[in-house]
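Researcher: Checking consistency across runs. Here is NAD(P)-dependent dehydrogenase (Short-subunit alcohol dehydrogenase family) again:
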Amino acid sequence: MITAGPFNLHGLAALVTGAGRGLGAAIAAELAAAGAKTFILSRNQAELDDLAQRIAADGGQAQAIVCDITDAGAVQSALDGIPRLDILVNNAGGNIPADFIDVTPEQLDSLLLLNVRSVFLTAQAGARKIMASGKGGSIVNISSQMGHVGAARRSVYCMTKHAVEGLTKAMALELAAHNIRVNTVAPTFVLTPMTEAFFKEESFRDWVMQRLPMGRLLPAQEVAQAVRYLASPAASMVTGTSLKLDGGWTAQ
């Protein structure tokens, strides 16, 4: 555990949504390793307990909170139950790839609820909690390279991530007066439980690799390190921006 230097989060409290596995688990472990008391939130008790044990074994602090992120009342109750908040990582999200003309109203509503509405309301509740301390803090919304470009079979996902990028800029302007910084991390494709099924399709994997100038997938650990940077004193003047970890995807 690192407890000194500009990336030190010792004494701070962080909440990570969608923390049970994948990117969320990597982010939570990284923040805990930096010294933050980390609240890990998802719907799966077993996954959270396993992560909390792994964080504790590495000398960190983590407390599990079982909660459905799409239930705004439950999220508010969860925030009410923690003593303070300095860092919020809005990580929970999902995707349902489909051709634009085949997207159903149910799929549309599901992704809007998870990727936009829940992000907005969780950020709103989190900002109020951070403001209560009067010490400022950092909110990191996990976006995507698809929040900057378009892609076939990802019309709804692109729409929701563009919304997150716009929300982040507006939040940054309003919350700067409270010393709360708001940014996004926009990764390219990462091999996670959510994307693993996609990469089993050879044609999809070939499509991704042909468009990634760096020629490799992004390790979850690098996403976690980017979040740690944005949450730390090293990024004290960084707000309203998107940190793209896209291997050059959006430069084309």
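Researcher: Does this match what you'd expect to see?
Model: One thing to look at in this run: The longest helix spans residues 105-133.
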